[in-house]
Amino acid sequence: MADVMDKTGIECRIDGQIGRVHLNRPKALNALNLEMVQEMTKALLAWQTDPAVRAVVVTAEGDKAFCAGGDVLALAESSEGDNTYARTFFAEEYRLNHLTGTYPKPYVCLMDGVIMGGGCGISMHGMRRVVGENVKMAMPETGIGLFPDVGGGHFLSRMPGQTGTWLALTGARLKTADVMALGLMTHAVKSSSVSALAEVLAHTKLNRPLSDIDEILRGYATVPAPSELEAHRAEIDQHFAFDTMEEIMASLQGGSEWAHKQAETLAKKSPTSLKITLAQLRKAKHLNLAECLRREYRMGWRVMQGHDFSEGVRALLVDKDNKARWKPDSLAGVSDEAVAAHFESLGENELKLIGDEQNA
Q: Which of 52, 197, 198, 224 has its CA 20 to 30 A from that of 187?
């Protein structure tokens, strides 16, 4: 490899005919910090007009995780101060998410292990999403007083039936068979092939980049085992079709043993997060990626001003007592007005995506 642009947490290099982004914080499960987001954005912008780069391939160090999300400890600390870091991080991360979703060249993510939060943000909007056998994918934000951001509203709202709503609210973890059955990923391969594929893509002449990449991926593709989730699809569609959290909870509590477990899971989440997440998804289905990200920036701005995010991070990641004291602590305590306030315009502080200045 040559042309290393950064070696702190992330390596961005030109390798053969591909631009290679390699997440390199294995001890932190390759979680994204602001510097990593900025370096990845810088590289993608440079490569999109570089004729020597025919495609982008994103990989990660270690076999435990592709990317476990963003650096929520730093975000929580910021939310207890003036929120400057959190606002900057969200803005830069969402710009990167939009860039990956609108990238003019093939954008391929090779993943295995944990894929959560920000890891979904840099992968789910890309053209090709390849996973190994040991995937653990989730959007667990309601458990820390947040919501499924990074464009989560866009891809979750477009999942089959009510599966996206279920995932967003409960933070359930999906295995490789599940993500393939739900159409979240484009190819499944053996875990041993994930790193090998990066080298093959780098050293294959890409005359017709996307077609050539697809031909290579077909040669490595495997058929995953049947998804255990399929047994609950009808229940998911039944119980999560409602437009209020109160109706969803009542439906679950009147259902099967599996449904009762979902209700127990939801009861532990932030009531505010649950309500704003449901409102987010119901609207997002009719919005494009840019519109979803702008709304999520508004939501993040308001969440950082509230109580639940820093409290959720404390309970889960700092003290690890798993006893978050939510405010309000019940669904009844979260008014429709409080939910609506999360989506109100930020005026001159609205999120500006890359290219907005040229298109203004």
A: 52
